[in-house]
Amino acid sequence: MEIPPKSPDGSERSPPSKELVTSNTASTLCISSRSESVWTSASRSKWDIYHKPVIVVSVGAAVFLFGIVIISLSCIQSDNKKVYKMCGPAFLSLGLMLLVCGLVWIPIIRKKQNQRQKSQFLQTLRAFFFNR
Question: Which region ranges are annotated with the description Disordered (predicted)?
């Protein structure tokens, strides 16, 4: 068991407490957040909002079509038929997965945009009524 050190004058006092560092968690969370801040009202173009799902849909459609071409090659060509029959369904499934993920992503972004607009509207109303 440790005995706290005595002060130089001989009286027993508790050791000096270290100061607690206070932080502004609200501002820290807002700054470090990857999502857009509600406080910024900079309008973004449609391409800035939807470019990722559009790219995923485009790549998915290209891979899906490539899978269709490979499967059709397995029907036409007789040599390397096993390779075409193995790779074709793999490209089909990968392309279909990317295509569906991109198509589902678009309504999610739309819903998120609507919620953000409602949130900004409610915050302006709250600021109007409570900051008088």
Answer: 1-20
